[in-house]
Amino acid sequence: MRIAELESRTGLGRHALRFYEREGLLVGVCRGSNNYRDYPESAVKDAILLQQLQSLGFSLLEIREVLDAMRASSIDCAQGARLMAEKRTAVEAQIANLRKVSKVLMREQQRLEDRAARQNLPKP
Asked: Which of 19, 65, 73, 112 has fewest C-beta within 10 Å?
């Protein structure tokens, strides 16, 4: 597929997609005789995963480790399992922190809504 279709299917811009390609995070990209990039179907899933991992705060090095482990045909399974466990633990910690932040925001929202309701009461 061409980059325009990949952009449309992933929501990522062409500059981000080309950056991921240069960094070796998007693989299997070929050039046609017209010198246009031709992205494989797997690039859709990979690009979406890249975006999700980056939005969670993973560094490009961490993303590379995860992708390399997932793509390896001969992987040290114990090492791969440790890597996935570490990443999963990091994600679960982020989720726990986000839940705490959400509770604080909910309390503040409620406080402000209560205050706004009191301010809008008619005066006797």
From this structure: 73
In what helix (H) or strand (E) does residue 6 lie, and over which residues does it extend? helix 3-10
| Helix-then-strand count for the chain, H and E | 5, 2
DSSP 3-state assignment of 38? strand
∠ CA 92-96-100, rounded to 5°: 165
Distance CA 12, CA 3 (A): 10
Query: What are 22-48's pLDDT values in tens digits?
Result: 998 998 888 888 888 899 998 999 999
How much is the pTM? 0.63
**Tokens at 74, concatenated:** 């001969």
